[in-house]
Every structure is written in structure tokens, then in C-alpha cells.
Amino acid sequence: MTGLFLEGAGLVHPNGQRALRNVSLSVDSGERVGVIGPSGAGKTTLVRLLGTSLRPSEGQLFIGDTDPWHAGAGALRQLRARIGVIHQSPPIPPRLRVVTAVLAGRLGAWPAWKALASLVVPDDAAGAREALERLDLGDRVFDRCDRLSGGQLQRVGIARVLYQRPSFILADEPVSALDPALADLSVGALVAESEGRGATLLASLHAVDLALKWFPRLIGMKAGEIVFDRPTAAVTTAMLHDLYATEGRALPQQGLDVLPDERPANVVLLKRPGCQ
Amino acid sequence: MSAAAGTIAGPRVTLRDPAARTRATALVVALAVLWPLLWLAEFKPWHLFDSGNLQVMASFLAGFLPPATAPEFLALLWKATLETLAIATAGIALAFVIAVPLAVVATRALSVSRIGPGPGRGVGAAVRTATRGLLTVLRAIPEVVWALVFVRALGLGPGAGVLALAVTYGGMLGKVYTEILESGDTRSARALLEAGSPRLGALFYALVPSTAQELASYTVYRWECAVRASVVMGFVGAGGLGQLMDQSMKMLNGGEASSILLTFLGLVIVADAMSALIRRVLS
User: Which residues have C-beta within 8 Å of that of residue B248, sequence separation ≥ 6?
Assistant: First the structure.
């Protein structure tokens, strides 16, 4: 079954700037894909396209065998309730409490009375805490979001999507504000969620080592186009240097020591910083 | 003379602000428009200080002193104050009931069809425009005109004032609520809508939490305006302090009028304190 499907898709912003050109990809249901590339490569636009936030200017788009832009309003809403998007800067009002921000993940599934009642007395504080605990944030359930650091707020955004339990998890640089250990933990939680429920996971990451460690398939993007799309084991360091145009300089990394050798590596080393 | 060797003779950015000319033009245009307006409005403040005029005003104001404190008048004043508070509060409550659904419909940040844009965008845009039009009509007609209309239907008394306030203030609250809801960070609402949330979910989990203080303080401010507006409506028979004021002025009883004005001052101070308290609770 198809999870995410794009054929010849492109996107031109209303100001005439082209963000994506001729993007084709097919992600199976339950597959995990990492998207890497320099900033401005179109990673965010790709996530927004797949998250039905932007409409492609050309080409075809299917999410779970549904064409969102030719479905009715009701079908589109049902589809959107099954898509969980993790934004790089979490779209959470600072005055909201953490528990409410996490429970908001299920608004698409809840009836209106439940949503309103949950504002007074949280409907499922235990569920919210469970999602937060997986990100090492279980002790902040009843804090207000403006008391959190940027990294903690980013994890609240991830917890919201974990609580939503969507069929498609789309993440746009979900751990950009986290230190290496927490970034590793959080991406691990997303991967575990995908494995546990068979959810499709597509995540753009700025740290190449995280992508190499957690994703069996990598898509490299540059200037709005896909430059490679292959199993992680077949991605060489030369391809990565080419992607980031970093000849002889360091690749953007989180600090995990997992870069492959010059030749295609079959096994990716999994080492945590400070561990031997 | 020769240029110093080794310096880069590239073009420098001149430090002339490119926006300066636009701003200067805007200032000149604003003055050019304002001057004839002042002239049309017969704005001649220096006439205030003509000796004859000063004397007339002074004797007029002297008539207001001392404030009336006769027990029977204070009893009347107390009853009229309660009536005014009731008119203002009931009027604002009804206006709120009218304004909230209209604001939810008119707020662009709560539109699902604008994302993409998706199915139903034409209908959505038309409904929003119609709703904004309705809000404009409601608030374009002054409350005192509505009061005159309703006094004819309901007879003299506070009922007409309440309805008049509800209609006009419903239009004002609806328009300003819409603008406040759209002035904050609307990304949070959009993210929820993109996750399948209904409008009300996005309203209460995203827009209201980020604008609660502004919404509350504007509502209290409008309540304060309603207290004042009820005076004007009292003049046309809609009850409350206004009606009392009308009677006192007609009987040229300045002392009673000043007692009524002092009561107003007290009410405005109370409104201010309420607003501050609500903002503190919500912050």
C-alpha cells in the first residue's frame, strides 16, 4: 500500500519563487525516510506539500491513496486528522499549558463537546504524560508553555503528534533545538512510534549523522530537487559532501559518530557521544 | 592627488534612508487633509479665551456646585445607577452573544478552505464578506437611533436601551474580535486546522489562548462605553442615569447633574479596575 506518493510535483510560491521542481517519490505505508540537504533545499516545502498545507502547482500527490485536492471537504478533514506534522518552531501559544498543547493533537478525532470540556478539566492527562515521558518531559505536564525552553517546547510539539497517533508522521527538522542526546532520544521515539503502529515516517533533518543512524532510506535534496533517493547503506560520504557542497569541510552533524566510510557502508556504526 | 593604494574602491551604500521621501510625503498629505477638516469643523479654540465666553462658561460650571446630596435625590440616583449598570451589562451580554458567532465566521485565520486553497473556498470567502458586511451595518447605525426605534416598539424604559446596545455593540465587538483574533500568531490555529481540527478547536486551543487578554480588556472597555452610551439613550427615554440627567438638566439643577457625573466617574474607575484585574488573572 502506498503511504506517500508524489509524481512530477512542483511548487511555485505566489511571489513567483520556485520552491520545488519535478519531485517524484513513493513511500510505502509504514516506511521510514529521512530527508537531508542544505537550508533552502525545499525540505520544509516538501513536508508542507505532503501535509496538505500547500497545494502543488503541478504534478500528482496522493496521501494513503487519497488525492487530497480532489477530495471533498469532509474527506480532506478526515485525511488531515490522520496526518501529524511536527513543525521546526512549534506552533503552540505560549499561554497554553503543556497538557492542553499535547491533548490538542486529537482535536481532529474528538467531538466538539469533548474538546471544550477538556479545556476545563484535561480529558486525558495520563495520555499526555505518557507521550511526554517518552521524550523525557513527563514532569512538565501542568506547566505553561512559556515556562519552557526552546528545546522543551520543541519536544511538546513532538509529544502532540505522538498523542495524535497519526498514520503519517511528517517532521520538519523536529530536533533542531535539542542537544545531541535529546535529539537522538526524540528521533528514536518517533522511529519507535512508527515501528510500533506501522505509521509512515518522513523527517527532514539538518544533522546528517542522525539521519544515517535512524533511517533506512535517505532522500537528498538541493535547490528544490531530489538529487538522490536510496537506501542509507548506499549513501557515500562523497555524495553527502556533494549534497552540502562541503568539499574538505565538516558535514552538518549532531555529534553522533556514525558517518560512513568513503566506500558504501553496509553497516552503519551506532555510537552515542561519550560512549565507547 | 592619488587614491591611497590598497583600498577597495567599491561603491558604498549611501546612508540616505530610502523610506524618507515616502514618509515626508505622507506627513504633508496628512496635514493638507487635516487643515480643511479642522476648518469645516469650525475648530476655533481661541474663542474659548474671549473674556465674555470665559465668564459664561464659568457661571455655567458654577451652577454645578455643590453636588446635590439630598437623601431623596440620592435614593433616585442609586436606583438610576443600578438601572444603568443593568442596561450596560445586559446590553453587552447580548452583544457578546451576537458578536462571537459572527466573529468566528468572519475570522480568516479559522478558515479551512483557505488552506491550499481547498474545496469550498469560493463559498467561504463569500460568507466571510457577507458577515463582515452585516457587522458593518450593525455598528454603522448609532445606538441612539436604534434606541429611538425600540422605544417606539417597547415603550419608555430600559428594555429599549438594552436592545439598542446589543445591536450596535454586537457589530463593534464582532468586528474588533475578528481583528484581535487575526492580529496574534495565527500559525498555531493553522497547524490545528491542518491536523483535522474543527474551527472551534482551533479557536479555543490556539487563537483564544494567545489573545485572551486583549479580548477581555476590549470587552470590559466596551462595557464602560455602554455605561456612557446609556446616558445618551436616557435622553431619548431609555431609562437609567441618562433619563435622570435629562430631567436635572431640563430643570437647570446643576448640583444634581454634577452628582450624576461624579457617579459616572466612579463607574469608569470601577471598569478600569475590573479590566486590570481580568488582565492580571489571564496573564
Answer: B254, B256, B257, B260
pLDDT tens digits, one per residue of B37-55: 888 888 777 777 777 788 8
- pTM value surpassing 0.80: yes
- Any idea of the CA torsion for A21, A24, A29, A33, to the nearest 10 degrees? -60
Residue B264 to residues A48, B127, B217, Cα–Cα distance (Å)? 55, 41, 19
Kindly determine whether residue A108 and residue B212, on different chains, have CB atoms separated by under 8 Å: no
- B232-243 as b/e, with b when 16 or more CB fall inside 10 Å? bbbebbbbbbbb
Instruction: Check if CATH label 1.10.3720.10 holds for domain B71-282.
Output: yes
Pick from A85, A104, A115: CB nearest B194:
A85
**One-letter amino acid for residue A106 of the chain:** R
Other residues' Cβ atoms within 10 Å of the Cβ of residue B30: 10
Listed residue (A135, A139, A110) closest to A124, CA to CA: A110
Residues B116, A54: C-beta atoms closer than 8 Å: yes
Chain A: residues touching B (Cβ < 8 Å): 51-55, 68-69, 71-73, 76-85, 87, 91-96, 100-101, 104-105, 107-110, 112, 115-116, 119, 164, 166
What is the ipTM score, two decimals? Answer: 0.88
- Backbone torsion region of residue A63, taken as left when φ is above 0, otherwise alpha when ψ lies between -120 and 50, otherwise beta: beta
Position of cell 542537544? A179
Q: Is A135 exposed, middle or buried (0-12, 13-18, 19+ CB in 10 A)?
A: buried
Q: Which domains does chain A have, with CATH numbers?
A: 1-82+167-180+196-276 (3.40.50.300), 93-165 (no CATH)
Q: Which secondary-structure segment (H or E) carries B166?
A: helix B158-183
- Whether B122 has its CB under 8 Å from any CB of chain A: the answer is no
Q: Strand A217-222 and strand A225-231: pairing?
A: antiparallel
B117 preceded by a cis bond (ω within 30 of 0): yes
H/E element, A202: strand A200-204
Cis peptide before A273 (omega within 30 of 0): no
Q: Write out pLDDT tens, residues B69-119.
A: 788 888 888 888 888 888 889 999 999 999 999 999 999 999 988 888 888
Q: Do B196 and A109 lie within an 8 Å CB cutoff?
A: yes
